[in-house]
Structure prediction request, 86 residues.
Amino acid sequence: MEELIPWAVGVIGVPVVGWLKGRLGWNGKQALWLTAGVSVCLAIGVLIYSGDLTTAEISWANVAGVFGVVFSAATLVYKQFAKKKE
Prediction:
């Protein structure tokens, strides 16, 4: 069950990124960097919540692994919404 947390967070990340893009008026590469930044923040949150990360043991390997899952989930959900809007 704990393996599903990053995917769930990725799904939650889509409306967060959409809201931020709307408020900031960003598109294109800016929006991609925004998505990456939100994914990193959410990945760190997942690691802290699951107990896999404390402030004393932040490593790029931990963050990169969860970032990949969160970013992938957010991208998949976004693509599904984008197809439905067309």
In short: The mean pLDDT is 77. The CA atoms of residues 20 and 70 lie 17 Å apart. Helices lie at 5-24, 29-49, 60-85. Residues 10-85 form one domain.
